[in-house]
UniProtKB/TrEMBL annotation:
Annotated protein name in UniProt: Putative polypeptide N-acetylgalactosaminyltransferase 13
Pfam family, one: Glyco_transf_7C
Source organism superkingdom: Eukaryota
Top-level taxonomy: Eukaryota, Metazoa, Ecdysozoa, Arthropoda, Hexapoda
Gene Ontology CC annotations of this record: Golgi apparatus
Gene Ontology MF: a single term: polypeptide N-acetylgalactosaminyltransferase activity
GO biological process, one term: protein O-linked glycosylation
InterPro entries, alphabetized: Galactosyl_T_C (IPR027791), Nucleotide-diphossugar_trans (IPR029044), Ricin_B-like_lectins (IPR035992)
Alphabetic keyword roster: Disulfide bond, Transferase
Keyword Lyase: no
Length: 343
């Protein structure tokens, strides 16, 4: 099998992180020039990290088995190091990265093993992540389900989580809120910034970017692993996709483009994705620069485009449009996985 070696930046530039079990990633750690000059041994100075990669760590045998090691109920591959990181911090330990250490890691182009019951790596990883969420995240598990709605369909039982719950009681482990406050405060909760977030559904279908290259919007099954999640901003009312772009309405006028403010009743409108327009916020929180074509209002279960006063609509199959608002029309009722204000 062909193999490739991946090399990470040297000089202790990296710490590790994970966002509600979505993935493990390396984040660049900033060193100020003043600190480097002051501390000539900074390359050897260990620093704390919220989590670690599972194949490149050292731990005492006694401490490893006191924490019950890697969870045997997590199948095959995926999530073991994330769970171990969380329980290590919550149950009295800590993780340190030593910048001057060097570890070689060989990645294969494909997994050298099979996944259980004919499933694939993504399904297995999602099941493992659900067990971790139910075992360790407490009420914060709902943020995980908001970003990964497909996990709701994956069956687990109480036996999959009981071992972890027993360990938490035996070692008097901290709640997950302690981890957010003391270990990973950079992981900001969306409550203050958003009205709602997560998968955006109408009936059994969710609004999804089906092709990032051509930016195609369509309605698709909410239970596919990579379904797009959306964020309705509290301050500027923008509806932003996880890709970073914003939901935008444009007017289709024959032969020439017409600003929305001059559009006539015969004008047709399309829902598209566009780069989000930044807004400056004044001292009292008022927007100094308006982006009316990207502003959406939440009215009950409706998503109303502020400038045109048209509603997001799923009238047929996988089609998404804007049309005249109709009270309680099923095709215009949309729901976020996490609603942070009463509808």
């Amino acid at each position: 099998q062909q193999q490739q070696q991946q090399k990470q930046p040297a000089f202790g530039e990296l710490s590790s992180e994970t966002a509600y079990l979505q993935q493990f990633s390396w984040a660049r750690r900033r060193f100020s020039e003043a600190r480097i000059r002051r501390d000539t041994n900074s390359a050897a100075t260990a620093f704390k990290s919220p989590t670690f990669a599972g194949g490149i760590f050292m731990i005492s045998r006694e401490w490893f088995f006191k924490l019950n090691g890697f969870n045997p109920l997590l199948e095959t591959w995926g999530g073991e190091s994330i769970e171990f990181s969380i329980k290590l911090w919550l149950c009295g330990g800590q993780i340190e990265i030593v910048p001057c250490s060097r570890v070689g890691h060989i990645f294969r182009k494909q997994h050298p093993f099979r996944f259980p019951n004919g499933s694939d790596s993504q399904t297995t990883y999602l099941r493992n992540s659900k067990i971790i969420a139910e075992s360790w995240l407490d009420a914060y598990k709902y943020f995980f389900y908001a970003s990964k709605p497909a996990a709701k369909r994956i069956a687990i039982n109480s036996n999959d989580t009981e071992q972890s719950h027993q360990l938490r009681r035996a070692l008097n482990c901290q709640p997950f809120s302690w981890y957010l406050q003391n270990v990973f405060p950079q992981l900001k909760l969306p409550n203050d910034d958003f009205i709602a977030f997560g998968a955006l559904s109408s009936g059994e279908l969710c609004l999804h970017i089906s092709n990032h290259a051509t930016v195609q919007l369509r309605m698709t099954s909410c239970f596919q692993n990579d379904v797009t999640h959306w964020y309705l901003h509290r301050q500027n009312s923008q509806l932003q996709a996880s890709s970073g772009a914003c939901l935008h309405v444009v007017a289709d006028v024959p032969k020439r483009a017409t600003p929305l403010s001059n559009a006539t009743r015969s004008t047709h409108f399309r829902v598209v994705l566009r780069p989000c327009v930044d807004q400056d916020v004044g001292e009292r929180g008022h927007n100094q620069k308006q982006t009316p074509s990207q502003r959406w209002l939440r009215r009950g279960g409706l998503l109303v485009h502020q400038q045109t006063q048209l509603c997001l609509d799923n009238p047929l199959s996988d089609v998404v449009v804007v049309s005249h608002c109709r009270n309680a029309a099923p095709s215009q009722l949309f729901r976020f996985a996490m609603e942070l204000q009463r509808l």
